[in-house]
Amino acid sequence: FIGFQVTTSSLEVIIMYSIFLMASMLQVFIVCYYGDELMTASLKIGDAAYNQNWFNASIRYKKMLLLIIRRSQRPSCITPPTFSAVSFESYMKVISMSYRFFALLRTTYYDD
């Protein structure tokens, strides 16, 4: 909605809305960045567990490592209620959907 208002306003309003739009996008990007970092780090846990000197360890230790490796097959992620996992992929979906709405509003506004 902000992008649409930018295209139909004066220069002062365009600057104000552009700054607000960039700040809003940055907020979403930061959350998605750390969500993606969490997913990447959680997938690396299994590799770190496997690369230990596990073959000389006790049976109990091997079983614990097996559980850790099995759990690390599925990445940990931040999942807000009623949304998908927070990651770069979800950021791109938000940006893509926002542009689609912007294009739709702009088309309907200028067609009239």
UniProtKB/TrEMBL annotation:
Places the protein is found: Cell membrane
Which top-rank group of organisms is this from?
Eukaryota
GO molecular function list: odorant binding; olfactory receptor activity
For biological process, the GO terms are: signal transduction
The record's listing under InterPro entries reads:
7tm6_olfct_rcpt (IPR004117)
> According to its record, what are the GO cellular component terms?
plasma membrane
Topology relative to the membrane:
Multi-pass membrane protein
Q: Where are the transmembrane segments?
A: 14-34
Q: Does the keyword rRNA-binding apply?
A: no
Which keywords label this protein? Cell membrane, Membrane, Olfaction, Receptor, Sensory transduction, Transducer, Transmembrane, Transmembrane helix
Its chief place of residence is membrane
One Pfam family assigned to this protein is 7tm_6
Q: How does it assemble?
A: Interacts with Orco. Complexes exist early in the endomembrane system in olfactory sensory neurons (OSNs), coupling these complexes to the conserved ciliary trafficking pathway.
Name of the molecule in the record:
Odorant receptor
- Protein species of origin: Calliphora stygia (Common brown blowfly)
